[in-house]
Amino acid sequence: MPTPDFAQLSLQHLQAVVAIDSASDERSQSIPTTPGQTRLADHLAEFFGGIAGVQVERDAFSNVICSLPGRGAGADKAPVALMIHLDTARGTHPVTSLAVTGPWEGGPVPYPKAVDLQVDIASYPSLSQYKGHRLVHGPGDAPFGLDDKLGLAHAMTLFKALEAMPEIEHPPLIFVGRPDEEVGRTEALIALSKTLAERGVKLGYTLDGLDPFEVNVENFDAAGAWIRFVGDGSVHPGQGFTLRLGGVNTHGATAKAEGHRSALRFAVEIQQRCKEEGVSAHFSSFVSNPERDCDAVCILAVQPADEDRLWEIARQVVSPHRSRGASVELAMGGDPPPEHGVAQALDWIAAFYASDPGFVLWAEESDGRQGYTAAYRALPHGPSGLQVDLRIRDFGEDRRKARIEHIERMAGDQPWEWTLQYDNMGRHLADCPELVDHAMAAAQAAGVQAKVQPIRGGTGIDPFLSEGVMVANLGTGYFAPESEKELTSLETMAGHARWLLALVQELAR
């Protein structure tokens, strides 16, 4: 029987799912947190339900469970789970038509709605692995959801390939689409994880990694924190100016490679420069963008004699990052509002990142096995306060604890709190080397180059691990997660289809 065209099949599946808006919302108390995730679950139930032999189940949380019996030598093996998450990150926009560019020779990617973005091999050396490929990308104005819809497209292609190739032997497969991974809601997984354990699932893979053909059996130990500042309600003299700061939008995992910059960091640098040069410009208000944490709108009180110098300082701070997507706008308008702790917060952030705790702090200075403590968002709190939110990431409980203690030392008398988010899966998977062995053997059989490395994020699998279902993570193969620069390639998608097809055969041995 002829082999399916994996590239075109994968593109068809990817296009169908990125057209559905399934971004989650941390402000919502429901599960799933958005109705779009239910719409995507409906689409998947219809898709997998149309494949011969697949049994589809749903639950009240919009979990989709699709079971395919094993074949040949794998028929009597224990079932294996393949998992993705239905939601995409806040700020993701659905797209009805993906662009295909190439074969690509390494020059600027032609994003239709972002002609100033400079995304090429010279700016991003990691893109060299896509040279000669036919790139698949969005319009360039917002992320379109490769995290985790590319993993979803791979799973859809795998099941379609198995339907078209009945000679392929494999164990029983259970595909799971789950909600709200991006916002850390694991309540939907408690009963699900017990169900998989009861059905004899011992091993599984999430399809939620970044790099092509990566295998992850370690991830960050993560926590979140906030610290609050209260202003005195005073109104600084001067003209009110609105400063719109557009940051360089990246995932924390790739912040260094992609040159991440947040509006918070820009504001800190602008305030410090103004102080050093005696420029009378006082931050009165700071509000992070609800869709893009890296952007913000600020209001300053500026003395007339310093208006031009403020604008010059702002441009000098932001301009080196314009080619990666940063922007700055300054407009006069109205009276400045009462001060609500912004200047105090920016001073604290400056002191925090100037400290030397013995580990990397900025996300954009962290890679490999380094962690970070990222002040990523600031929002008004109460009538005259500001809350700064921080992400705490590192490999190891002791290192996570050291970062929390560092915040405590630096907080002083400022009110602050922290909360645990997720743990390193490596502590569970150390005694399950077969997850890596199967994936690496499959890569060799498929003719692709796999690598084992930690994932600089999380995959939301703690409930499964607690039930004895050992779940590793597999790469899906794309660039710039959760960024308007997102892209993959037809060749990479085809390679991942071959890899997964080889993996299920390996699991049948």
Order the strands across the largest sheet as they lie in space: 1-2-6-3-7-18-8-17
Could you tell me how far the N terminus lies from the C terminus, measured between alpha carbons in angstroms? 22 Å
Largest β-sheet summary:
8 strands, mixed
Shape: globular
Secondary-structure content class: alpha+beta
Please give the number of β-strands. 19
Radius of gyration from the alpha-carbon trace, in angstroms: 24 Å
Number of helices: 12
How much of the polypeptide forms β-strand, as a percent range? Answer: 15-25%
Mean model confidence by pLDDT: 96
What is the helix content? 25-40%
Unreliable sequence segments: none
Describe how the helices and strands are arranged.
Elements: H1 6-18, H2 35-49, E1 55-58, E2 64-68, E3 80-85, E4 99-101, E5 135-137, H3 146-164, E6 173-178, H4 190-198, E7 203-209, E8 214-216, E9 221-230, E10 239-246, H5 263-277, E11 281-288, E12 296-302, H6 307-318, E13 327-332, H7 342-354, E14 372-381, E15 385-394, H8 397-411, E16 416-422, H9 426-429, H10 434-446, E17 451-452, H11 462-466, E18 470-475, E19 487-489, H12 490-507
Parallel strand pairs: 3-6, 3-7, 7-18, 8-17
Antiparallel strand pairs: 1-2, 2-6, 4-5, 5-19, 8-18, 9-15, 9-16, 10-12, 10-13, 11-12, 14-15
Helix pairs in contact: 1-3, 1-12, 3-12, 5-6, 5-7, 10-12
